[in-house]
């Protein structure tokens, strides 16, 4: 089975802090994604990556950056956390082509 | 731009009964894929079923089936013989068939399904 692992299940940070959310997949997938999930808004794509060191903006990239130095790891970075970034963050991966995405368990991030 | 709409924020069904969750989408593309994902309280999103737009036959997976109406841009999920473990948030999602190597998903806002014993 595909395993997508997010480093933290719950995280509490303060405004202005630099926050790193880590995601690792074990199936050699080319594509990796970061979503944000908010009640009433569903999942919205923040950034995705289709190869090492390659990244593209999703629908809501403002305030976020990403890093993909190795194929199996995709990091989401909040450069200066703000309270409006309190949310559930979901990582996903998939192989190339018309294959479904596999999701991690999510990180519930609170910015105080 | 493509959009996905789930008009039922919450639904409830009795155990062993059948329930249908609605999803409509808007696109000008002819090649695309549609998905239903389940997110139980454990939070991990699980793929329930997928449908290719070029296939006329409705997809089925055990107790889960879809009613895909391409002209109406409707993609509803039917759960038969509902079980307590079906209680979850259900998301409808769209993916373009023209996305190239990547396969970005566009999600609806979700329907929270409760199953009553």
Sum this structure up briefly.
Chain A has 112 residues and is mostly beta strands.
Describe the structure.
The complex is a heterodimer of chains A (112) and B (117). With 112 residues, chain A is mainly β. Chain A is built from no helices and eleven strands. The mean pLDDT of chain A is 93. In chain A, the strands form two sheets. In chain A, strands 2, 4, 5, 6, 9, 10 and 11 form a seven-stranded mixed sheet that branches. By secondary structure, chain B is mainly β. Chain B has strands at residues 3-5, 10-14, 19-21, 24-26, 32-39, 46-52, 60-61, 64-69, 74-79, 88-96, 106-107, 111-116. In chain B, the strands form three sheets. In chain B, strands 2, 5, 6, 10, 11 and 12 form a six-stranded mixed sheet that branches. A four-stranded antiparallel sheet of chain B has the order 3-9-8-7, with no helix packed on it.
Keywords:
heterodimer; A: about 110 residues; mainly beta; 7-stranded mixed β-sheet; 4-stranded antiparallel β-sheet; globular; B: about 120 residues; 6-stranded mixed β-sheet; 12 strands
């Amino acid at each position: 089975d595909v395993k997508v692992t997010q480093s933290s299940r719950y995280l509490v940070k303060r405004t202005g802090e630099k926050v790193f959310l880590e995601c690792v997949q074990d199936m050699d997938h080319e594509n990796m994604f970061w979503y944000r999930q908010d009640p009433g808004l569903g999942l919205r794509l923040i950034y995705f990556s289709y190869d090492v060191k390659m990244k593209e903006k999703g629908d809501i990239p403002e305030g976020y950056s990403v890093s993909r130095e190795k194929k199996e790891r995709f990091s989401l970075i909040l450069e200066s956390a703000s309270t409006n970034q309190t949310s559930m963050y979901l990582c996903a991966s998939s192989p190339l082509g018309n294959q479904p995405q596999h999701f991690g368990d999510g990180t519930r991030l609170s910015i105080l | 731009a493509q959009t996905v709409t789930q008009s039922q924020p919450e639904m409830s069904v009795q155990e062993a009964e059948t329930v249908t969750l609605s999803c409509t989408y808007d696109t000008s593309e002819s090649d695309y894929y549609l998905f239903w994902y389940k997110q139980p309280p454990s939070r991990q999103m699980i793929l329930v079923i997928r449908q290719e737009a070029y296939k006329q036959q409705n997809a089925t997976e055990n107790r889960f089936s879809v009613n895909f109406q391409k002209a109406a841009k409707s993609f509803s999920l039917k759960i038969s013989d509902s079980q307590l473990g079906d209680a979850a948030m259900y998301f409808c999602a769209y993916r373009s068939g023209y996305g190239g190597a990547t396969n970005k998903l566009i999600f609806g806002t979700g329907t929270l399904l409760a199953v009553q014993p």
